[in-house]
Amino acid sequence: GAVVSQHPSWVICKSGTSVKIECRSLDFQATTMFWYRQFPKQSLMLMATSNEGSKATYEQGVEKDKFLINHASLTLSTLTVTSAHPEDSSFYICSASSEGGSGELFFGEGSRLTVL
Amino acid sequence: GQSLEQPSEVTAVEGAIVQINCTYQTSGFYGLSWYQQHDGGAPTFLSYNALDGLEETGRFSSFLSRSDSYGYLLLQELQMKDSASYFCAVMDSSYKLIFGSGTRLLVRP
């Protein structure tokens, strides 16, 4: 199957700093990528849809000025958590689908963010 | 609103069969998927049903009834490594994948 790579896997930062997470589709072009957040023992909550060459579409309740998403190329989307606070500590996962709408999303390995 | 309901936890013994149900209510429907997630890992795709009926893939099968807004994942010949969380997910009219709350499966020896 298709491969999606996410970096970094783990990041610890101080409160008030910004953190960038990268998501790359390694062997296919992804016009659309999705960013999810998952708190411990909870489900994956869709944060935003990242569209190549245009602005991201955010889900209700997600602050677009806090979670900056950039999809500059067909293989790279980035999520920047600005002015991070301890409550932003979570598992952030990106995903992408290849063409065909088979219902399968390919997920990155996830990035575990801990804000001190 | 959109909602997917599935049991929070299921326990079964090795070698047994377990069924995880999922009912959904979403704006638009393009199919029901199932994902497996081990602790600390990313979700991995198990199956996808766009049409009614049963799809079989090895020890795992998935069923869909669109008229009942219902589906299930059937796991046969359970193994210890099947202990994980299982999520049903619906692709809505915007082609976004919306996840259920997840079912934690514990397989005992």
Please render the helix and strand layout as text.
The complex is a heterodimer of chains A (116) and B (109).
Chain A: E1 4-7, E2 10-13, E3 19-25, E4 32-38, E5 45-51, E6 57-58, E7 67-73, E8 76-81, E9 90-96, E10 106-107, E11 111-115
Parallel strand pairs in A: 2-11
Antiparallel strand pairs in A: 1-3, 3-8, 4-5, 4-9, 5-6, 7-8, 9-10, 9-11
Chain B: E1 3-5, E2 9-13, E3 18-25, E4 32-37, E5 44-49, E6 53-57, E7 60-65, E8 70-75, E9 84-91, E10 97-99, E11 103-108
Parallel strand pairs in B: 2-11
Antiparallel strand pairs in B: 1-3, 3-8, 4-5, 4-9, 6-7, 7-8, 9-10, 9-11
Number of strands of chain B: 11
- Sequence stretches where pLDDT stays below 50 over 5 or more residues of chain B: none
Chain oligomer state? heterodimer
The tally of beta strands of chain A, per DSSP, is: 11
- Largest protein interface, residues of each chain: A-B, 24 and 23 residues
Description:
The complex is a heterodimer of chains A (116) and B (109). In chain A, 0% of the residues lie in helices and 50% in strands. With 116 residues, chain A is mainly β. In chain A, a hairpin with a 5-residue loop joins strand 5 and strand 6 (57-58). Chain A is globular and about 35 Å long. Chain B is an all-beta fold. Helices cover 0% and strands 57% of the residues of chain B. In chain B, strands 2, 4, 5, 9, 10 and 11 form a six-stranded mixed beta sheet that branches. Chain B is globular, with a radius of gyration of 13 Å. At the A-B interface, strand 4, strand 5 and strand 10 of A face strand 5 and strand 10 of B.
